[in-house]
Amino acid sequence: MLAAQPVVAISGPAEVTLGGTATLTLTFDNQPDASPGSDVGYAPYIDLVLPKNGADGAGPGSDAPFENDGIRFLSATYLGSPVAATVLEFDVNGEAVHPFARDATGELRVVRAADYGLGPGDELVVLQLPFGSFTPDQTAQQISVRLEVSSLADAGVALPITAVAGFALGRDALNNPAADPPLLGPVASTTLTPTLLSLSKSFVWTGRGDGHRPELPARLHALTRHRRRPDAHRSRADRPAPGRHRRHGCDHHLRPGGKHRFRSRYERPDRSLR
Ligand SMILES: [Ca+2]
Ligand SMILES: [Ca+2]
Ligand SMILES: [Ca+2]
Q1: Which ligand has the minimum distance to the alpha carbon of residue 4?
Q2: DSSP E strands, the chain
Q3: How remote is the CA of residue 151 from the centroid of ligand 1, in Å?
Q4: Centre of ligand 1 from the C-alpha of residue 43, in Å
Q5: Per-residue confidence (pLDDT) for residue 151, from 0 to 100
Q6: 179 exposed, middle or buried (CB, 10 Å; 0-12, 13-18, 19+)?
Q7: Which ligand is in closest contact with the Cα of 101?
Q8: Which one, 20, 130, 159, 219, has the greatest CB density within 10 A?
Q9: CATH 3.20.20.70, domain 6-195, yes or no
Q10: What percent of the chain stands above pLDDT 90?
């Protein structure tokens, strides 16, 4: 006998730019285990637990000097259509009452942030899958989730993201939690690490090198302009500028420790090289 078991997997980028957005894919599936009961699960959903506080924003709310600087939910879609999402903040006890899933006693489930390595003020997002039930031979389905990372996030500090899948009505379609307990699957987790701002769109080249010495590689101009920090460029400054390609931008990254890093972008009329 195989019985319905909700399972979710998370995939997505490991890093995200400060102040930027990241898109995760949550893959929901019914992978029956050896428990007794039907192999069809009813009222599928996903709980997504997000580190809204971030590195500095301890506690509920977002007040100085503990402003949230973590990751928050923006939207979720299934095949391009919005997915019903309930966004809750864990209270001062680190608890949130689930909007519809019940425990075996019939009470709405109390979700505890500490079970996912988080605490008061972090975020619980409940995503209701657009299916009444889910069979084991049904193809795994993907939900796309957009997240926003605070511009105040601490670069290099990995933030934990957790997802758990559930069948709110258990293994039959009735709301009978005592006889047919609602199901929760295994915990899936990942981390997202904020990285420093890329200034590629706003960096304005004001050095006189460009117009003056067009044959020089852009990195050498950078070296000239930032001669007080030559280490960041020396190793690559001798790379020749691509012939006939026009440099149209320079990405500037300020790295931990105050080092600067440049990456030039070149283009020719038909396509972009970098
Ligand atoms: Ca907070
Ligand atoms: Ca911060
Ligand atoms: Ca049921």
Answers
A1: 3
A2: 6-11, 15-17, 21-30, 41-50, 71-78, 81-82, 84-89, 95-102, 108-112, 123-128, 133-134, 141-149, 159-170, 183-195, 246-254, 260-267
A3: 15
A4: 31
A5: 95
A6: exposed
A7: 3
A8: 159
A9: no
A10: 69
Give this prediction's pTM.
0.73
Long-range pairs for 265-268 at CB < 8 Å and ≥24 separation? 265/200, 266/241, 266/242, 268/244
Q: What is the pLDDT of residue 147?
A: 98
Q: Which ligand is nearest to the CA of 69?
A: 2
Assigned token pair, 150:
């605070």
Q: Is the pLDDT of residue 221 over 90?
A: no
- For residues 224 and 228, what is the distance between their CA atoms, to the nearest angstrom? 9
How much distance in Å is there from the Cα of 203 to the middle of ligand 1? 33
Give yes or no for a contact between 154 and 38, defined as CB atoms under 8 angstroms apart.
no
User: How remote is the CA of residue 21 from the centroid of ligand 3, in Å?
Assistant: 37
Report domain extents, the chain.
Answer: 6-195, 209-267
Residue of 242, 254, 194, 192 lying closest to 216 (CA atoms): 242
Instruction: Look at the block and give the residue holding tokens 């200034």.
Output: 199
SS3 146: strand
When the pLDDT of each residue in the chain is averaged and rounded to a whole number, the result is: 82
CA of 56 to the centre of ligand 2 (A): 5
pLDDT of 180 > 90? The answer is yes
**pLDDT of 162 above 90:** yes
pLDDT classification of 37: cutoffs 50, 70, 90:
confident
Neighbouring residues of the ion ligand 1, judged by CB less than 5 Å: 53, 57, 68, 121
First to last CA, the chain: 56
* pLDDT tens digit sequence for 54-112: 999 999 999 999 999 999 999 999 999 999 999 999 999 999 999 999 999 999 999 99
